[in-house]
Amino acid sequence: MSQPTEQQPIKLHFSDNGQGEPIVLLHGFLGSSAYWDEVIPLLSRHYRCIVPDLRGHGHSPVSTDPYTIEDMAADVVSLLDELDLKQVTLLGHSMGGYITLALVDQYPSYIKSWGLVHSTAYEDTEEAKQKRLNTITQIRTRGMIDFVDGFAEGLFAPHLVYKLPDSILKVKEIGYITSPEGGCGAAAAMRERPERLSIIQNANVPVLLVAGEYDPIAPPDRMFVADSTRITTAVIPDIAHMSMMEAPEQLVNIIHDFMQNQLKD
Ligand code: MLT
């Protein structure tokens, strides 16, 4: 287990809906808690859904110093402490999944179960690391709107781009309000994150891995890296990287089944 970070946690903006078993949902890069807007009304019928804006995203502040994925995990732990939540189910989408893996690694006592939604425990490839630098340069030189305009549609399956214009517009509008410092800080943090395959391979609590059939960012083979009775896998057909918008009801059903199976154990 690596050492927890020394940076001061950032106080995160969050929403808190419903009652029952707590589920914490972490959004992805240039997203916000609003990424989960179609999921929360369905899921909060059964569970308490705590949904933060991660550091530098949505309405949460960003730090001036460089920070790591582990620092972003510490922010979430600080929120759990603020809410006096001792154990939760933690589900992370994409970058939120990298933060989930770091939190499970460094603060396992907070975790009753956890999952990745279109995310991976692999580190960045050399090509991906170069792309992170290009992202930072583009955001710094051409601004957030330019970057987000070239980024949003690629998160969706091509055949859904024309069917879900409102979702794509929403992703863009959420991205536009991310501060450039937040976008660049998160890109740099993702670039430096370590590989955490062993967190899945050695899981000793229930784990959910949800992939999109056509996801170019976290394809199923980059997600499903271990097989055990602890691990539940699901592939949502005909979607890419954004099940919370491309197929929200299917995602909710998968999460609900995962939660109910834990209650049976
Ligand atoms: C995300 O949606 O969070 C990003 O696509 C993750 C990444 O760039 O690795």
Structure description:
The structure is a single chain. The protein has twelve helices and seven strands. It is α/β, with parallel strands linked by helices and 265 residues long. It has a seven-stranded mixed sheet. The longest helix has 17 residues, at 126-142. The protein is globular. The mean pLDDT is 96. D-malate (MLT) binds at residues 28-29, 94-95, 190, 217. D-malate binds next to loops.
Distance between the termini: 27 Å
User: Structural class, please?
Assistant: alpha/beta
Nearest-integer average pLDDT: 96
Question: Which value, in Å, is the CA radius of gyration?
Answer: 17 Å
Shape: globular
Q: Tell me about the biggest sheet?
A: 7 strands, mixed
Ligand roster: D-malate
Order of helices and strands: EEHEHEHEHHHHHHEHEHH
Taken as a percent bin, the fraction of beta residues is 5-15%
Oligomeric assembly: single chain
The helical percent reads 40-55%
Q: Would you report the number of β strands? A: 7
Question: What's the short version?
Answer:
The chain is of the alpha/beta class and 265 residues long. It has helices at residues 40-43, 69-82, 95-106, 126-142, 144-149, 158-161, 165-176, 180-192, 197-201, 220-223, 243-246, 248-264, and strands at 14-17, 22-26, 48-52, 88-93, 111-117, 207-212, 231-236.
Which terms would index this structure?
265 residues, alpha/beta, seven-stranded mixed β-sheet, 12 helices, 7 strands, 42% helix, binds D-malate
